[in-house]
């Protein structure tokens, strides 16, 4: 019996050391990210942000700082629902690829195939819309935008609002970030599927991915644990400017939580929504007419953090700013959601990604 005691002791010691090491690494991770967040988000009594880092599909760090509602004094938590702004474009792009996978359209199709009277529509393809290379005037840069900002617009009304504006350049000539292209994509989704955009996204993406806290934005609906949006003026914080979500539409009108956005990332990784061939189109880079490559796929910027490839996108809409970075090689997803457009999480999320990657390389976790 005596001879088994020493190996058993070594086993127990090994488990203890391993557990202690993992605990130390976790503490180092938490402390490092806490320090970065407190640099940029340091007002517990103002609007703030919610942050999450996940690895291999599971959260390894979560933090909420600030208030979800200044009038009621409610603290932010990971359960709060935020407006995503342009992170909506990921969902629109994947919806288009889902329709392609079903054989209902091709990204090479000219938009004139679906909207016969669209100016120069025979030369502008769905691919151009997805990659911000269409040359169509961005409606957010039009002076007349204030005339419709609070009106209830149909997708066709939105398309008609900008379609006769002079083009900024010929299709495929330049990459220039463009919200109009993604509004057009939402309209095409409705034409091809026969469903409203918000219904299509809910049924075919949110429900399939188990994203029960995600929805098309509304200021009228009662939304459990809604984070309210704010601006910061010289006099202090004020409630966000009210707009009609039918204006940004499929370019920026979805809402979600950090937890649901992780479900979204996991669904993409598991090919739950698209097969590998289709989803890879979203994460590829493409070339302009002159052969110059640009770092944008379908709904994602294709970038890197210190040489490690990433897929990224942020968002900005009245009262909110958002940012997410995914690192495929490590299956790490980092997201920050802010409920004041005075606090952008873009640089912070990038800094967290750098910190985490360096920790992995140095075997800190």
Automatic annotation (TrEMBL):
InterPro entries in the cross-refs: AmpC-like, Beta-lactam-related, Beta-lactam/transpept-like
Top-level lineage group: Bacteria
Residues of the Beta-lactamase-related domain: 41-341
Organism lineage string: Bacteria, Pseudomonadati, Bacteroidota, Sphingobacteriia, Sphingobacteriales
Keywords: Hydrolase, Signal
Name of the protein in question: Serine hydrolase
GO molecular function: hydrolase activity
Signal peptide range: 1-26
Pfam families cross-referenced by the UniProt entry: Beta-lactamase (PF00144)
């Amino acid at each position: 019996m005596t001879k088994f005691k020493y190996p058993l002791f070594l086993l127990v010691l090994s488990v203890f050391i391993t557990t202690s090491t993992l605990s130390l690494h976790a503490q180092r991770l938490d402390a490092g990210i806490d320090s970065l967040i407190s640099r940029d988000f340091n007002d517990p009594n103002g609007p703030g942000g919610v942050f999450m880092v996940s690895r291999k599909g599971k959260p390894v760090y979560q933090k909420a700082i600030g208030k979800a509602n200044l009038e009621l004094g409610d603290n932010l938590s990971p359960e709060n629902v935020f407006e995503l702004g342009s992170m909506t474009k990921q969902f629109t792009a994947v919806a288009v690829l889902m329709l392609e996978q079903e054989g209902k359209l091709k990204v090479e199709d000219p938009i004139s195939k679906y909207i016969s009277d669209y100016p120069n529509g025979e030369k502008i393809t769905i691919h151009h819309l997805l990659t911000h290379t269409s040359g169509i005037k961005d409606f957010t840069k039009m002076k007349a935008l204030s005339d419709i900002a609070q009106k209830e617009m149909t997708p066709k009304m939105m398309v008609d609002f900008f379609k006769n504006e002079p083009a900024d350049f010929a299709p495929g000539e330049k990459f220039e970030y463009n919200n109009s292209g993604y509004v057009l994509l939402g309209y095409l989704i409705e034409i091809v599927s026969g469903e409203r955009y918000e219904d299509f996204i809910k049924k075919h993406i949110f429900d399939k991915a188990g994203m029960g806290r995600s929805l098309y934005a509304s200021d009228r609906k009662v939304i459990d644990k809604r984070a309210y949006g704010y601006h910061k003026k010289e006099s202090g914080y004020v409630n966000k400017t009210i707009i009609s979500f039918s204006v940004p539409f499929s370019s920026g009108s979805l809402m979600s939580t950090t937890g649901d956005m992780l479900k979204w990332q996991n669904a993409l990784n598991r090919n739950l929504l698209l097969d590998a061939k289709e989803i890879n189109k979203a994460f590829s880079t493409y070339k302009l007419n002159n052969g110059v490559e640009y770092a944008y796929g379908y709904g994602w910027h294709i970038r890197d953090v210190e040489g490690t490839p990433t897929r990224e996108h942020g968002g900005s809409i009245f009262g909110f700013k958002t940012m997410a970075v995914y690192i495929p090689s490590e299956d790490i997803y980092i997201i920050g959601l802010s409920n004041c457009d005075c606090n952008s999480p873009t640089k912070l999320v990038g800094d967290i990604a750098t910190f985490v990657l360096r920790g992995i390389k140095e075997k800190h976790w």
